[in-house]
Structure formats: structure tokens, C-alpha cells
Fold this sequence. Notes:
Keywords: ATP-binding, Kinase, Nucleotide-binding, Serine/threonine-protein kinase, Transferase
Number of strands: 11
Binding site for ATP: 56
Strand order of the largest sheet: 3-4-5-7-6
Order of helices and strands: EEEEEHEEHHEEEEHHHHH
CATH superfamily of the largest domain: Transferase(Phosphotransferase) domain 1
Pfam family, one: Pkinase
Largest sheet: 5 strands, antiparallel
Helix content: 25-40%
Protein name: Kinase-like protein
Structural class: alpha+beta
CATH class of the largest domain: Mainly Alpha
CATH topology of the largest domain: Transferase(Phosphotransferase), domain 1
Strand content: 15-25%
Distance between the termini: 37 Å
Number of domains: 2
Domain Protein kinase: 24-294
Amino acid sequence: xxxxxxxxxxxxxxIGHRIADGRLELVSxxxxxxxxxxxxxxxxxxxxxTGFYAVKCLSxxxxxxxxxxxxxxxxxxxxxxxxxxxxxxxxxxxDAPEDPCVYVILDYCPDGDLFSMITEHQRYLRAxxxxxxxxxxxxxxxxxxxxxxxxxxxxDLKPENILCxxxxxxxxxxxxxxxxxxxSSTDFGCGSTFYMGPECQGGIxxxxxxxxxxxxxxxxxxxxxxxxxxxxxxxKQACTADETFREYLRRPDFLxxxxxxxxxxxxxxxxxxTVRADWRINTRDLRxxxxxxxxxxxx
Length: 299
């Protein structure tokens, strides 16, 4: 779950609590975020493929009108995006006036998130993983392009917000807590520092008044691609204070010196990691290049 500013206080433990007219019981905690908790709930004959739902409980207590509107925005944008197979399915929202929480009933993904699949299981670092990397990345890319086509910009794309099924062969995009419908934003620093483009941090050579949310999502996709190929980030932060990123600005082929990436992968990353957002590749052209790749790593 994405962290939010001005979050309310600690959340009440709802294990054992029943919702949906008593049909769903919250039996354990799956995750904790600033604005709520995600619980596991047996589906009891519902439509969940795994036999369980993930129930995101968003607290309404202590929220002002602006914060409540952000909560409604998250639910609305996720509902629209949920029509894509590579976005975690949102089945139902329960928002009773007398209840202090909103309950968002989602598909449960038993294999955890992509971050764990990459770092703990090293699923994509084995030999001859090119086809799997291509498949997984294109699933993420398809979800993002679908969202963009409906005017939805995620703004917090990272492996922790991508959930896994089928042992990491299938992935779905999750957590629309920071998503927006605005093509341009003045909300600098929105998202996770490791994955945001330089324009989202205000720019490098000059101070920007706004940034493209679509282009920033593409930058995040590039960092995710590096993670899939190499199991690590290319740098800590895309700013001149970061020594690695500073060297990349000086010498764009520098990533081939520090990462085991192929020339094909390097060429794609240079199209993604452009300082100017208007020079950055779009999702459609990115997909074409990804499909043409034979090897992501040095052979």
C-alpha cells in the first residue's frame, strides 16, 4: 500500500470482524499502509479464483474532505483500471455511512509481490530467463498503457505494487493510492524516490512548474525493467546528488559498465532514462522494442 501524507492514527485490529452481511470474515493481516490495512478473507463460495479475497480496509476516521476525496479517487480509478487482466481485480466496495472503514474487496494473490519475487526468490535471474522477463514486463506495460488510455496515471509504479501469481509467471498491477487523472501534476515528489524520474523531483537543469505523469510512469517502468534483468536498481535516486546517476548523465552507456545488460537492453534504457520527459519513449514504442529483444543480459 502506498504511503500518504497526513495519515490518520493507528488502525484498529479487525481480525475476526465480518463484512458483506456476515459472509466475509477478516482472518489475518496481509499488509499495512498509512491509510489502512489489507486483510485475508475466505471467499465462502464467492468468485475468488484462489478461494480468498484481499480486503483493503481504508479508515474514514480523522480524514478531512480533501483526504476523503483522495480515498474516493483511488477507488474510482482502480475500478476503471480493474477491467484489464493485468490489474488486480476489484470485486466490490462496501462503504456504509455508520462504519468507520471503507472495505475494498480485491483478488488475493498468494505469491506475494514482485519485489519479493525478484529479491528473495531471484525468480528472473536464472539462466535463459529472457522470455519470462519479456512476458512479465509486457504484462506490466500492458496494464500501464491501458490505464493511460483511460486517463489514469499510477505515479507509484514499483515492484512492491505489482502482485504475483503462478509462481511469478503472471503479474497484476495494484495500489492506486497515488494515482491521478491529471496528465500534468505539480505534486512533486509523489511516489517512491527510487522509481521517480528527475522531472517528478522538480527537474535537473531548471526548476519545473509541472511534470508529465505519463512520462514519469514510463521512467518507473524502466527502473522495474532493470530490476527484472539485474535484481537491483540502476541508482538510488535520479538526481545530480547521486553519484551513479551523475555518471550516467555524463556517459549514457555507463550502465553497461555496472550492470550485466546487453546492448539491446541498454539501447532501450537510454530511450527511457531521458532527462527531458518529452524525449522519452512512449508505451506503444516501448512494447515494440521489448518484443524485438533477443537477450536482456550479456551472453
